Amino acid sequence: MQFVSKKAQIDKLSTPCLILPVFSKGEQAEITTSFDNAHDQQISLVLKQGDATGKAGNTLLLQMPAGSKTKRVLLVGFGEHGKTSTEDFCKAVSASVNALKSLPIKETISALLFVDVADKDNEWKTRQIVLKSREALYQYTETLTTSAPDKNILKECQLLISDSCSEKDINTAATTATSIANGIDSTRKLADLPGNVCTPTYLANTAKALGKEHKSLKVTILDEAEMEKLGMGSLLSVSRGSREPAKLITMEHNGGAKSQKPIVIVGKGLTFDAGGISIKPSSGMDEMKYDMCGGASVFGVMQMCAELNLPINVVGVVPSSENLPDGDANKPGDIVTSMAGLTIEILNTDAEGRLILCDALTYSAKFNPDVVIDIATLTGACVVALGKHATGLLGNNDELANELLGAGIKAGDKAWQLPLWDEYRPQLKSNFADLANIGGPTGGTITAACFLSRFTEDYKWAHLDIAGTAWKSGAEKGATGRPVHMLSQFILDRC
Ligand code: BES
Ligand code: MN
Ligand code: ZN
Question: Which residue, by CA, sits nearest to atom 17 of ligand 1?
Fold first, then answer.
């Protein structure tokens, strides 16, 4: 779907559908009133009758009389006039697309930029209109045949702006948001694919295809023999229990000066996590196909950087493997040697994410990074601590952590920081190795990050635990594409 800005008189619009804001209390928006005055007070009438409530997210579709150039009007509620919150705004945008997406409407004209949101400018509103619309239009179709949903036909949305507003600024914001949305869609699609399709080899091939599509991307795939040479004993120990060979995928976007140190993002690409010998309970285990969401978000972000040709250097690293029980799988008590040389006692084979990440993090130092950010569905404890709304954030540099927190707030893709104090470190003590891969029943998200921190001492590092935010369960089961927006904002802020 395309979004472009438009300056026009509200009462003279030729469109299959005009989207107008309404409020539950206080005056109506000027633009809505103008339209109302030119159309026999139709809108006042339905508001008075109570058919449209104006509550945030409430929608009502009106058919205009025969002969009217504006065929339909969709009224969308934004709550009380002057009190629309960022959440209300996003909710209302989503509702407007949901109300239209199954109707035979190809084009719309939207007046939603005329809604004021405290502290938010038109750029932010445009971004959210594009992203929330695209989110509502996303459809997984890959493995559906008879029950495949109808294809969306909504193709274009013209965003009405006032005379004082710059068309160029709105179009730039829409272009940026479209590339972020494309990244989010790719992330969701990869994540929603089943484990028997989306294997480490599939991810490697996807990276190669992305590299072919974008000139700025240099893609390198390391196979198991090459990882062996580098001494990645920890990563390879996880993959040994699987028939699918592990891959270490690197995507380099070189948009900045040669001398500029890159941002390195490292995503856990565990394409199915059965737990290994420490096998998981069978109920809900299907959702462990989502254990590659960190890796999938790296794909989404790299695609965004390449599409927008961002003037910055970003490297994406995705260690990818399965974690299955097998005669050759890791056993509790096994000790492996990581690329960094540290020995690890594997007390629980289900704590495999950190085992593949630690070697990828050691490997990342070779890019001489400015900062390294890893993204992983790492701990169930993070879902217990923060629920499904906030991504867990930990790290060794508060400036970097604050930058990410800020980007998350701006994007509406928020994180919450947890402490990474030395007090937690003894929980990883092992009698037989340099460290254990689990830290006992308490503070699971923190001890997991503590484990990773032993491999990130040479650079500024942040860790995003997306176990609660990367996908939804239940009737709406599916990937969310988080935290692609947060990371995109973080990168854009540095451009
Ligand atoms: N992929 C899981 C984490 C996870 C669990 C994500 C549930 C989303 C929902 C990870 O590999 C794992 O199994 N972690 C263990 C660690 C434990 C053994 C220390 C966990 O969280 O139970
Ligand atoms: Mn696991
Ligand atoms: Zn896992």
Answer: 351
Distance CA 467, CA 482 (A): 10
Q: Where are the alpha helices (DSSP H) in 71-151?
A: 86-100, 122-137
Q: Whose CA is nearest to atom 7 of ligand 1?
A: 380
Q: How far is CA 473 from the centre of its chain?
A: 16
What separation in Å is there between the alpha carbon of 293 and the centre of ligand 1?
Answer: 13
> Which single residue is written with the structure tokens 């409407």?
105
| Phi–psi pair at 486, nearest 5 degrees | -60, -50
**Alpha helix stretches (DSSP H) within 378-462:** 380-386, 398-411, 444-453
Binding-site residues, ligand 1, Cβ < 6 A: 273, 291, 348, 350-353, 377-381, 383, 438, 444, 467
Q: Regarding beta strands 391-395 and 415-417, do their DSSP bridges make them parallel or antiparallel, or are they unpaired?
A: parallel
pLDDT tens per residue across span 480-492: 999 999 999 999 9
CA dist., res. 384 & res. 448, Å (int): 14
Contact call for residues 468 and 383 (beta carbons, < 8 A)? yes
Q: How far is the CA of 349 from the centre of ligand 2 (A)?
A: 7
H or E segment and range at residue 34: helix 30-38
Percent over 70 (pLDDT), the chain: 100
For residue 320, how far is its CA from the centre of ligand 3 (angstroms)?
11
Tell me whether residue 240 is one of the annotated catalytic residues: no
Three-class secondary structure of residue 377 per DSSP: coil
How far apart CA 61 and CA 76 sit, in angstroms, is 9
Task: Let me know if 189 is a catalytic residue.
Answer: no
- The pair of structure tokens assigned to 168 is 């160029």
Phi, psi for 461 (deg, rounded to 5): -140, 145
207 pLDDT more than 90: yes
Indicate the residue type of 362: T
- From 348, 330, 325, 327, select the one nearest 236 (Cα to Cα): 330
**149 band by pLDDT with thresholds 50, 70 and 90:** confident
**What is the rounded distance in angstroms from the CA atom of residue 190 to the CA atom of residue 192?**
6
* CA dist., res. 203 & res. 214, Å (int): 17
Q: Which two tokens stand for residue 220?
A: 């390198």
Confidence band, pLDDT 50/70/90 cuts, at residue 399: very high
Look up residue 11 and give its DSSP letter: G
Dist CA 293 CA 246 (whole Å): 16
Which ligand is nearest the CA of 465, by number?
A: 1
Q: What are the tens digits of pLDDT across the range 8-53?
A: 988 889 999 999 999 999 999 999 999 999 999 999 999 999 999 9
Atom of ligand 1 nearest to the CA of 444: 19
Residue 44 amino acid letter: S
